[in-house]
Amino acid sequence: MAKYTHSVSIDPDKCTGCTTCLRRCPVEAIRIRNNKAVINPLSCIDCGECIRVCKHSAKHASYDKLTDLDYSKHLIALPAPSLFGQFNHMNEADYVIQGLLDMGFSEVYEVAKAAEYVTDLTRIYMNGRQSRDPVISSACPAVVRLIKLRYPTLCEQLVPVLTPYELAGKLAREKAMREHPELSPSDIKTVFISPCPAKVSWAKSVMEGQKVYVDYVTSMNDVYMELLSRMKHDEVPSPEAASEAGIVGLGWATTSGEAASLMNDGYLSADGIDNVIKVLDDLESGTVSDISFVELNACSPGCVGGVLAPTNGYVARVRLHNLRKTGGMVVKPNDIRDVDESIAAGNISDEYTEEEAFTYMPEGAPNMLAMMLAMKKAEALADKLPKKDCGACGSPTCRAFALDVVNGEAKLEDCKIRTEME
Ligand code: SF4
Ligand code: SF4
After folding, report:
1. What pTM, to 2 d.p., does this model score?
2. What's the rounded Cα separation, in Å, for the pair 214 and 165?
3. From the alpha carbon of 59, which atom of ligand 2 is closest?
4. Which one of the ligands is nearest to 30 CA?
5. Which of 148, 292, 301, 411 has its CA 20 to 30 A from that of 157?
6. How far apart (Å, rounded) are the C-alpha atoms in residues 149 and 369?
7. Is 19 a pocket residue for ligand 1 (Cβ < 6 Å)?
8. Residue 52: pLDDT above 90?
9. Are residues 11 and 78 part of one domain?
10. Spatial separation of the C-alpha atoms in residues 266 and 280, rounded to whole Å
11. What is the pLDDT averaged over residues 79-100?
């Protein structure tokens, strides 16, 4: 794997060292050093929690700006399903698609449509699987990275199918090549409109030999601002019907949507990174039974709650619900069979899977044995610390501080309370 590219970073000039993010990072990736927050790139999962909580706007996500796009190319917008829940009083998804075309995109390929294909692929994968362990959705890249870093024994339970936006990029590119023989492959560029930094990071971190289906990843916030001025749906008649996604694909934007789309009763779904960690702890310890599919979303209530999405996720969820109920979104015939004959025969060809991406160990990841030894030493040291988790040492908890000392990243004297107690 090429080096993991993080989207989330910090502006030290804006950071006041207030420790808010230190306490809220779910994987204890933040430390305060010299009165500034620093992120440990080996631990960070790009969940965006620190962006959400920083009152000083010191944390931000990097992504491709709309002004960076090369509009001389055949640009294909890949809107995430959550984009359709951002707008008030909108009863037809076609307004969004028309708005994207008006922004200068040559065409639009809905990620929701690809999500429906991923549902089919997942069903085929589950039917052919021998193991009785539940499979875990690989759609949330923050969760996938968390599993790889903290729960490596669960890696083999991740569904090894392309994510919806990668599949959308692949299918959109192939469609454009078919319909525009005058274009060369380098003339076609796909642009994913992301609700979260984790998806930006995943798309930008390409494994050696892995095919790239998404050329740019931009922010839903930025696209939303552009769309607002173009979507005058109170003033103009309905645009031409263009949306091809069905309610199943649109449902992926909120928690349980992916799991429910499998039409399988034995599923578990959870959202919010703290709940996700609790479920992963249970899966790792083997205490979960009678479950065949696990859907986990780092954000609540699913991707609509991503930190790059402008609208409150719970409001967006209601809007999506109404759009699915009253709008132009209808269940489309399952046309995955048009995509690949092997799928029609109940097989999944390699071009729809990326198992290696889910089972590799990230570059720089600590050796498990060395990590366990360090943890053991840290536990012994933590027993001698004040157990106040005050954060004054720059580590989020006494236990994390003990590990930092064992790893040579902090000195015992940094704990002022302990020094005072002696
Ligand atoms: S929340 Fe974190 S990044 Fe923001 S000012 Fe406080 S310490 Fe700095
Ligand atoms: S993005 Fe998430 S994991 Fe990374 S430092 Fe921020 S809160 Fe921690």
Report:
1. 0.90
2. 8
3. 6
4. 2
5. 301
6. 14
7. yes
8. yes
9. no
10. 17
11. 88
Q: Within this chain, do residues 221 and 243 fall inside the same structural domain, yes or no?
A: yes
Q: Looking at ligand 1, which residue's alpha carbon is closest to its atom 2?
A: 21
Distance in Å, CA 48 to ligand 2 centroid: 6
Between the CA of 38 and the centroid of ligand 1 the distance, in Å, is 9
Say what percent of the chain tops pLDDT 70.
85
Task: Kindly give the distance from the C-alpha atom of residue 29 to the centroid of ligand 2, in angstroms, as a whole number.
Answer: 6
Residue range 184-197: mean pLDDT, rounded: 97
Q: In angstroms, rounded to a whole number, what is the distance separating the alpha carbons of residues 125 and 346?
A: 9
Tens of pLDDT, residue by residue over 290-347, are 899 999 999 999 999 999 999 999 999 999 988 876 544 444 444 454 555 555 555 6
Q: For residue 20, give the ligand 1 atom closest to its CA.
A: 1
**CB contact at 8 A, 277 and 25:** no
- Whole domain around residue 226: which residue ranges? 66-359
Query: Residues enclosing ligand 2, CB less than 6 A?
Result: 8, 25, 27, 29-30, 39, 44-50
| Domain-terminating residue out of 315, 335, 359 | 359
- Domain boundary at 9, 31, 62, which? 62
Residue 46: CATH number of its domain: 3.30.70.20
Structure token digits, residue 64? 């491709």
**Distance between Cα 294 and ligand 2 center (Å):** 23
